[in-house]
Amino acid sequence: MSGAFLGMPAFPANAAHAVQDSQLRYNLRKATHTIRGKRAAVVGELPDWAELRAAAAAIKDEALRDLDTHLLTLEAAVTDAGGHVHWAADAEEANRIVTDLVKATGETSVVKVKSMATQEIGLNEALAAQGITAYETDLAELIVQLGDDWPSHILVPAIHRNRSEIREVFLSKMAEWGRPAPDGLTDEPRALAEAARLHLREKFLSAKVAVSGANFMVAETGTLVVLESEGNGRMCLTLPETLISVVGIEKVVPSWRDLEVFLQLLPRSSTGERMNPYTSTWTGSAEGQEFHLVLLDNGRTKVLADEVGRQALRCIRCSACLNVCPVYERAGGHSYGSVYPGPIGAILTPQLRGMGSELDRSLPYASSLCGACYDVCPVAIDIPEVLVHLRAKARHSPAERAGMRAAGWVLDKSVRLAKAQRLGSRFRRLAPKRLPGPLAGWTDTRDIPEIPAESFRDWWKKTDGGRR
Amino acid sequence: MRVALFITCVNDTLFPGTGRAVVSLLRRLGCEVEFPAAQTCCGQMHVNTGYQDEGVRLARHFLDVFGDYDAVVAPSGSCAAMVREQYPRLARAAAAGPRHAPVGGGPRPPGGSSAFSRAAAEMAPKVYDLSEFLVDVLGVTDVGAYFPHRVTYHPTCHSLRGLHLGDRPARLLAQVRGLELLPLPGAEECCGFGGTFAVKNPAISAAMCGDKVRGVLDTGAEVLCAADNSCLMHIGGALKRQRAGVRVMHLAEILAATEVQA
User: Fold this and answer.
1) Per-residue DSSP letters for A326-361?
2) Which residue out of A306, A311, A359, A369 would a mutagenesis test of the B interface target, given it has the greatest number of B Cβ atoms within 10 Å?
C-alpha cells in the first residue's frame, strides 16, 4: 500500500494524539452522526433490508468462490468489446502499467475519478515521480490534494475538515494547481462548491487521459460500474480519449441481475440516499476512445485464502461501519495509517499488508468489539469475528504473553482461582490506587473496584448458597 | 429442570454481591440454582485478546462443568454471548486443525474437536443472561422488587447486539415499585470498556467513557444500571474518580431489592 504511511507509530499512540484535537472531535462527531442518522432513516424504509443484506453477502461469496472463472469471463468480455485488460500482481506492477500507458499517450497529466484502489497503490505519487500530474476531481479528494493532506474517510475523505478550513485551503492552494479561488470566497457550501466547479471544469475540458476505479465489474458483459454523487466521474469517464481503470479483483459480480441488489444497498448505506445520483456504466471502448482495465491483486488472493478473513473482500466501500464506529469517531481516520480507516480498515489493512509492522499489528485491537459495525454492514461482514481472528494471528509482546499465560493457568483450575481470590482478599487493604505498567491506562481516568472481603464461591461454600 | 449459576470470574472475584442478589432473586421466584464449584471463566478475555489456545482450554472446561445442566444462567450479557456466539466459532476453528500442529505431526489430542463442536452446539441454546432467563424461561416481568430511586439503564453492547436482549431489562425495571426509569441519551453507544481494549487503547477508551458519563449525568439519575459488571466497573470507575455521586448497580441487585430491605 501507499508508502506515505510507512513508519507510522501504532494506533494507540496516533489515536491518543488525535483524540485531544477538539476541532477534529467536533468535526467528526457532527459529520458521522449526521450521516448515521440519514442512513438509519432510509434503511428503515425498506422492509426487506435483511433479505437484501443476506442476498448481497451470498452474491459476493459466490463471486469470490469462483473468482478465477469470473475474472476470465470478464477479461474475454472486455477484450471483445475493444478494451485492453492488464493483470497486476501488486502495487508496483499496477503503477508501472498505468504510468507506461499514460506515457504512451504523450500526456503529462490525468484527471481522476475518486478511487480507493489507486489510493491504496499510491498511484498519484508513482505518476508524479515520472513527471505526470494526477488531478483529483472529487470535491473531497480535491480538498485533500490541495491541502497536501491524507484522506481520513473512505467516502468523505475530507471529513476531518470543516467548511472554514476548506475555504482556507481553496484560497491558499487552488492557484498552484490551476484556476484560483474567486476573490471574496466565503465558507458557504454553495460558494465553495462553485469555486471547485470552476476550478475543475478546466481540467475536465482539457484532459486527454482519465484514471478511475470501479465499484463493480459485471463479468458476463465486461461492464464496469461507477457510482458517484457529483458528476465529476461522468465527466472523466466520457470526455478524455483514454480511460484507464484500476480495479481490485474482488469487485467482480457475475451478472447484471446481481447489481440490482447492490444498487439498493450501497447508496442507502453510504450517503443515506435512496438512489445514487450518477451511476455510470461502460463496456469496453467507445468509438474514438481507448479503454484499459488494470486488474489489481495486491494481497487480495492472500486474503481470499483465509477462511475467516476473506469476508472482508465482500466490502463495497460504503463507509457505514466508519460512521457508526465510536473508536473511529474519536481517533479519526489518520490514526489507522491506511487509506482504509475505521472498522473495515482494521480488518482489511492487516490482511492486505500483513502484520509485520507495529502499526499493522495494532489495528485488529483498534476496536472495543461493540459490534455496531457488523449491524450496519450491508454485506454482513462480521467485523468483530475477523478482528478476533486476526488478534489470534498477531504476535504478542513477551510481557503480555506471560501475563495472559499466568491468568490462564490460574483460571484453568477452580482451586487455583479460589486461592488467588483469598490472597487478594487478605491483602485487599494494600491494593494500590494507581496501577503500574500498561495497567496505568486504567487508573489514569478510573478508580479500580474494591476487592471484596470474600469471593462469591467462598460465600457459597460457607453459607451453602445462603441457606445457612 | 436443573439450573446452574455461572457467576463469571469477574463477578465471583470482584462483585460477589451481584451473585448473592441473583441467588436470592431466583429463590424468591421459586427457582433453586446450583453452583458448580469447578467453574472458572468462559475464556472471553483470552479469546478476544488473541490467546486462542488458552481460550479454547477454558471453553472446553466450561462445557465440561455445565454440559449436564438444563439451563445455565449468567449475570453477564457479555459472558453469555461469548458462550452462545463464540464457542461454536472456536469449535469450527479447532475442527479446521490445531493452529500449532503437534510436534512430530502426531495425532490430535484426545477429547477431539468433534466432541467440542457438539458440546458447544448443545450449550448455545441453554445459556441465558439473567433477564432472558427471567422473561423467557420463568415468564415473569414483575419480580416483586421495590427500589425507590431514579435509575438509568445502559444496555451494553454484547447484551444489545450480541444477545439481542431488546426491551427485556426495561420491562423488568418498569415493574419495580418506586423506580423511575430515565432514558439514557446515546444508550446504544459503547462505553469504551471492551475488555483489554480499555488498557490497550486507554485514550480512546477514556474518551468514550467520558461521553457515556456525560450522558448518565444528563439524565439526573441516582443509579446507573446494566446487565454487565465489567462495563459498570469501567463507567463506575470514572464516576467515582469524578466524585459524580451516581452509583452503579447490576440489574440483579435492583431486581433483588425488596421493601423489607429498604
Assistant:
1) HHHHHH-GGGG-SSS-HHHHHHHHHHHH-S-SHHHH
2) A369
